[in-house]
Specification:
MetI-like fold; mainly alpha
Length: 189
Amino acid sequence: MSLGSSFLFRVPVLAIILLLIAFFVRMGIMPLGGTAEWNEAVAGWSRIGAAGLHLLIPALALVMVGLPVVLQHTCTAMKEVLDSPFIQAARGHGIPPARLLLRHALPVAANPLISLFGLSLAGLIGTSLLAEVVSGWPGLGPLFVQSIFARDFYVVIAIVMLSSSLLVIGNLVGDLLLFAADPRIRRTT
């Protein structure tokens, strides 16, 4: 795993988001907070473009937080598979390295990544709530915080139930993908 992904893996989510915001404020190249420019009349496709530009910082923060976990699991799974006896035998039979990697090693190494899918979806939701609050994007994060302070328990419960439902759905989709991808699982059921 590279030094950059190791650094991102160990830095707290809040620090990554704040560093991104500080970087873009210092450079002055991107708007911060909200969904559109308030000082100009924006309509049509330019409004969508402005909202996308405002969404770039929270989206970049989510990518920077989630990418090291995926890279670490991918590297670990690929190292384990490439050291396995069936890959050594395939190398001995003269299978080209690209085909060996894509057709033989990657499908076997994908199993842990598919299992990680459900948990990463729940982590992504939690991180997005934090990224929305810190970056000023008006989404579920600020609504959740405002609902807690206003003691609007129905909205708080709805957001918690939505997050829990997405965790369960993510795990279900991950299990179904694992069932479809791995013939060993289909054989045991």
